[in-house]
């Protein structure tokens, strides 16, 4: 599958989500007495109810069932593609704990638009970057958070470089800490990045997949 096909699948999934939402809102409206997906269409005597539009309700219910099946099929293709493109690279993906996972969308796309340009802060960031973003998937959580190619990360959810020098061993230790942090199933990941001589603060809201949490970017170590 090519990236264009993947992006098209993501768009289709979003359209399906919106269509399911619209039909559910119709079923749960006061017009239909909040009948939903499982409310009875007959009265206490077994006759069709005359206070709701049974025909439209049946159409909406059937539509939702079909859309959910389409959603599952598309989601499976998306997950297979994500697994394929990242299987040969050390992406930040770990098995999630389903019981502890929460997927909050509060402050979605939260990015500090105004960059920090204080000279001392910039110098600190330059001396402490440990990872470079070398891959971004369009419409992924990282993309929506404002992360860009070649962004340099100097803090990942309070995980940062220790000491003045960083080598391969220290980098491995940082990535191990990140992996352990991801096992806690965070609903929000705060990043501090250096981009073209300015500092940005970004918040990523991971997606959950059958293989673990997904953020949609690939990081490579920066060693000095």
What can you tell me about this protein's structure?
The structure is a single chain. The protein is α+β, with helices and mostly antiparallel strands. The protein has two domains: 1-86; 117-219, Pdz3 Domain (Roll), CATH 2.30.42. Helix content is 39%, strand content 16%. It is built from five helices and seven strands. It has a five-stranded antiparallel β-sheet. A two-stranded antiparallel ribbon has the order 5-6. Strand 3 and strand 4 (198-204) form a beta hairpin. Helix 1 runs antiparallel to helix 2 (54-86). The radius of gyration is 23 Å and the shape is elongated. The chain starts with a helix and ends with a strand.
Strand proportion, as a percent range, falls in: 15-25%
State the secondary-structure class.
alpha+beta
Question: Residue ranges: pLDDT <50 for 5 or more in a row?
Answer: 87-113
Count the strands?
Answer: 7
Under CATH, the topology of the largest domain can be stated as Pdz3 Domain
Give the tally of structural domains: 2
Keywords: Chaperone, Proteasome
Domain Nas2 N-terminal: 7-87
InterPro entries: Nas2_N, PDZ_sf, PSMD9
Organism: Plasmodium berghei (strain Anka)
